[in-house]
Amino acid sequence: MLFRRRKPADILERLRTMLWPRRSFWRSAQYFAKRVLRLTATPHAIAAGVAAGVFVSFLPFIGLHFILAAALAWLMAGNLIASAFGTAIGNPITFPIIWATSYKLGCAILGAKATHGDAPIQLGKLLERLEFGQLWDPLLKPMTVGGFPIGLAFAIVFYVLTRWGVAAFRRQRQLRLLERARRRAEAQAMAAGGA
Fold it and tell me: What is the residue range of 71's domain?
């Protein structure tokens, strides 16, 4: 393999890079942005895919984000790969913020009282017995209701930014290609005139 590590990464190193990028978060964000800009689809399809992924990241259904984002992107005629990139907005750093705000907003919308004073939800025991019905009312329902408007707002912002970015990137690339073709034609004309 061409770019293989000399010393294979151990489990701790792999876990660290999953939670904290090797270079920086900014560099990882730039990598995702470049990957999205270079997708071969219409600007609407790429932007709709990213927006679908961003929207789904605000819903509390961990493990289903890729599937839900792909389904939503398909319904909106968006790019499925862009929808997978859009789900990167939900990550171990942003999930606590997303969940807290969506839960608070959901409780406010539903008029429900947050379960701070009640007995804490025994999440491990409920998941062990797969009792999702008992999780729905106190936790998942407020997070879903609260995540919907927040996710929609972020999806609209990301749609506009992505569509604008893809169009600008393609315009710049087209201008660079035209400039390169013009210089090549001038060089060929000068070579033909000098011969």
Answer: 42-194
pLDDT tens sequence across 15-27: 777 666 666 666 7
Give the number of domains in the chain: 1
Q: Is residue 35 part of a domain?
A: no
DSSP labels for 113-172?
Answer: PPTTSSPPP-HHHHHHTT-HHHHIIIIIHHHHHHHHHHHHHHHHHHHHHHHHHHHHHHHH
> Taking Cα atoms as reference points, which of 156, 169, 150 lies closest to residue 36?
169
Asked if the structure places residue 60 within a domain, the reply is yes
Tokens of 160: 């506009």
